[in-house]
Write a structure and sequence with these properties.
It contains three helices and three strands, in the order βαααββ. With 119 residues, the protein is an alpha+beta fold. It has one domain (2-112): Ribosomal protein L22/L17 (Ribosomal Protein L22, Chain A, Alpha-Beta Complex). It has a three-stranded antiparallel sheet with strand order 1-3-2. The longest helix is centred in the middle third of the chain and has 16 residues, at 44-59.
């Protein structure tokens, strides 16, 4: 069983968010939350909130009575680019230079460990 959470229209560059989300992909939820809490990057806060939301979605599933939160891990985590606001500011020789203010969408899927049985 798995659950996901999506944070949309985060006003941050997707490239900067991908640097942080690569750290938590594939980790256990406890280790990922601990790493995000003490990481000194601005992108860590929305990723931590999205991860907590995915865990809450997993716990509130109808069949979640038997799920232990310590057996959860980050199955997939990715960042897509959102809209780009285009702004202009003064450039050299009377020109206008474009500024792109980017945004992103964060998607995190958590799942529980599958017991592996060796034959």
């Amino acid at each position: 069983m798995e659950a996901r959470a999506i944070a949309r229209y985060i006003r941050m560059s997707p490239r900067k968010v991908r640097r942080v989300i690569d750290l938590v992909r594939g980790q256990e939820v406890d280790a990922a939350l601990n790493a995000l809490h003490f990481l000194r990057k601005r992108a860590a806060l929305p990723i931590e909130k999205t991860l907590r939301s995915a865990v809450a979605n997993m716990m509130n599933n109808p069949g979640a009575k038997k799920i232990d939160p310590e057996n959860l891990y980050v199955k997939t985590a990715y960042v897509d680019s959102g809209f780009t606001m285009k702004r202009f500011r003064a450039g050299s020789m009377g020109r206008a230079s474009r500024i792109r203010k980017r945004s992103c969408h964060i998607t995190i899927v958590v799942s529980e460990y599958e017991p592996t049985i060796k034959a």
